Every structure is written in structure tokens, then in C-alpha cells.
Amino acid sequence: MDEVLVERVLRAVEQVPRGRVVCYGDLAALVGIGPRQVGSVMRHWGGNVTWWRVTNVAGDLPAELLARALPHWREEGIALKPAGSGCRFAEHRADLGRLGEDYARAAADLDDAAG
Description:
By secondary structure, the protein is mostly helical. It is built from 7 helices and 2 strands; from the N terminus they run H-E-H-H-E-H-H-H-H. Strands 1-2 form a two-stranded parallel ribbon.
């Protein structure tokens, strides 16, 4: 996968504020790729960023990731759904306008790298 694209996704994730979440589709729209590509980047290279702030649109994560995300969510005040299967996405969704502004600043140097 293209290194610049990977870096774009990871920088977008890094801009999600503490206590907030986004879905794969939010990041995809921001970066200009598809949600599955975002998922692939996160699966292979997302371990060193705040991956627990990226869920599906329902606020869910696969069971193995959910168990690892719970301590982070507790620490950041991200509330669980009553069934405990994920977070209350609508309550904790990041402000996408602000996220876009922050991402544009964080990724500005990548425009030159893309050629």
C-alpha cells in the first residue's frame, strides 16, 4: 500500500480528540479513500495511534479489539452502549468540521510527498 496514503490515515486518526470517536467512513471521506482501505491501514499499521477512537458507524469493534479498547474508553470517558457491545457513537462522535481542519494542518506536508 502507498506509504503516503498510510501516513494520511494515521495522521487523521491522531487528530481525533480524546474522548471522541469516528467511524471508518468518516476517516475515508476525510482522506479521500474507501472505508475498507481505512480498515486495512488500521489493521496493519494502526497499532501506534489511538486506534480505539475508530469504530464502525454503530460504535462497535470486533470482540478482540473491544476488550483492548475498554480501558482506553473508560479513561477517556467514552460511554458504552447498554449492551456493552461498543460505544455510544452518536454521543461521542468527533466534530467532523473541526477534525477536517486539524487534519488539513497535520497532513499539509504530505501534499509535496504525494508528487
